[in-house]
Amino acid sequence: MDAGTRSDGGTVATDTQAPSVPQEPAASAVSESQLSVTWTPSTDDVGVTGYRIERCQGAGCLDFSPAGTVSAPPFADTGLTASTAFGYRVLATDAAGNTSGASAVARATTPASGGGGGGANATVVGATSLPFPTLHHLTVEWAFSGDANANGVATVRYRPVGTLPWREALPLRRVPAGSNEGFSWTGRHSGSVFDLQPGTTYELELTLTDPDGGTTTRTTVAATRPLPVPMANAPTKAVTPATFASIAAGAQPGDVLLLGAGTYSGFDWSRSGTQPMPIVLRGTSGVVINGAINLFNQSHVHLEGLTVNGRIRFNGSKHVVIQRCTINASSTYGGDGIVTYTRAENAYIADNVVTGLTQWAEDSLGASGNNLGEGIVVTGPGHVILHNRVTGFRDGISLLEDAEAVDQFSIDVLNNDLSGNADDGIEADFCFHNCRVVRNRLTHNFIALSSQPGLGGPTYFIRNAIYNAVHVAFKPYRGSTGDVLLHNTVVKNGDAFGVYAGRPVTGLYARNNLFLGGPGATFNGYSSGTGRVLHLPDLDVASSSLDHDGVGSTTGTLTGSLGGATFNSLQTLRTLTTEAHAVQVDLTVFSTPVAYPSAPLTLSATPDLRIRADSAAANAGQPLANVNEGFSGLAPDLGAVEAGAALPTYGPR
């Protein structure tokens, strides 16, 4: 506020500050001649008095002219022409005549005459959100109601801010409102933008298209999290076992505690850092901690390069970093490795070696087997678990289940190496949405990947390499909804892709996978199947779609079922199910020899599951934006790795 002059010679404040720019503008169809424009109201140091709405006509238009004014949202634009695209932007004004900058552009198209705009089939768009960005991914959620005929589609384009070319992302998954196992969710379009750069701000263009009405375009920005690092020029404090307690008690944000060689007792940590100034506990060669590290309700604490004979537990903490540590589980602490048993946020768990106590033996297998401990377990949003090696637990990497599951969304499980886990390799159970299980290698696990259940989805399983999943490769049980399987490779005993849920499997979407099985057997009371290539009798076919998968069995047969449809050849698989573009494969599909796991309890060497460029799996996939761009042939290859590409780095870097 600037000072002006009063008539009595005093001064009066003059308002020169403009209102904030209106946010999240959205336009949607009400009828063939009316669109509704909404936005998040602006703020002002004195008060917003109204909004000016400007309109342009035509797809991608930018020649705006005044359309009207209102004191508050929404704005009804009437008398429009049917089947016409319009763009809108909003400016806020205050009593002093200050005007904000223009909002982002919202776009919508009036329905065709007689097209039913505004009826139950039209989409009514709601809020968009991008909750809990991770280092490499963005979650996108767009609420909606209406769309009774379920033909609304939401697409995403993205680019780093300040660059020109847009890139396509996968379309968002349409998630109908529902409930399961004591949890409920609202209708929304939901999905992820994959493989982004850390610490980068992106512009996103979201377009919801519904021929019945409600077509809308929104733009927004979001930033990925940066790689967590110590403060530049951080003060380093040398620590010994004798001085640890006193130095730890005085630790300040930004400090690096450099632990010298020696044996330390477990400890409770009760000091927090800040985002630019984390507290770092860094081990040097010869550091051993015998016992548990408990880090409860703290933030911005880094544990680096420690050998822990016990457990690390970070209940309720935020922005904790655990990297390059060696964790040897102990029965004293339930056989667990790295865990939080209450809601935590934004942990970064990377490049650790986590070793459990469970032996790879038949009596260890299954939920009731002789097994112990969770390798890495989290609950809460925003966690990043990548490049760890996890061996010898009940479950290798897992989320919490049932009432203990809290806000389990926007979670990355990437490039981990898991073996010898007697129940689940990766247990993404009770994922609310946008858990991303990508580029992991799972060798010699009872069950490779679990989603028991997914709570609406999407739960993504992408480019995972699975060898010798004794019972099943994927477990979408307990009424799982919204699982997405893309470019996974499976070689296992028994049924290649068998699901024995006993309850409907809903909203399953699968593309470009390789499933190879063979003769089966029973292990600790669990059957691996009989060698069927696809056996999903509980699949809800109406809500699910599987196609472009490669399937095979060393039995020499090609049999199975999807929902109520059974098949006994490639031709009947293609004609009786959604797998219209399936191809038949066998073990010669791989570029180096891969043995059939006929003896699953034998810990054989980890095979290379890359395919031959001249195999049936080459060029047989469906292009998927943001997932398989850059393929080298006529079309993407099936399976976890494109022919001729280098293997991903699995486990610690």
Q: How does this model look, in words?
A:
The chain has 2 helices and 55 strands. By secondary structure, it is mainly β. The radius of gyration is 28 Å and the shape is globular. The longest helix has 7 residues, at 570-576. Helix 1 links the parallel strand 20 (236-239) and strand 21 (256-259). 2% of the residues lie in helices and 41% in strands.
Which descriptors apply to this entry?
single chain, 653 residues, mainly beta, ten-stranded parallel beta barrel, 2 helices, 2% helix
Secondary structure: elements and pairs:
Blueprint: E1 2-5, E2 11-14, E3 23-31, E4 34-40, E5 48-57, E6 65-70, E7 75-77, E8 85-94, E9 106-109, E10 123-129, E11 138-146, E12 153-160, E13 167-168, E14 173-175, E15 178-180, E16 183-185, E17 188-193, E18 201-209, E19 216-223, E20 236-239, H1 244-249, E21 256-259, E22 262-269, E23 279-283, E24 287-295, E25 301-304, E26 307-313, E27 321-323, E28 326-328, E29 338-339, E30 348-350, E31 353-355, E32 374-378, E33 384-386, E34 389-391, E35 395-399, E36 409-414, E37 417-419, E38 424-427, E39 433-438, E40 441-450, E41 459-462, E42 465-475, E43 483-486, E44 489-491, E45 497-498, E46 509-511, E47 514-517, E48 522-523, E49 526-527, E50 534-536, E51 545-547, E52 550-553, E53 560-562, E54 565-567, H2 570-576, E55 583-584
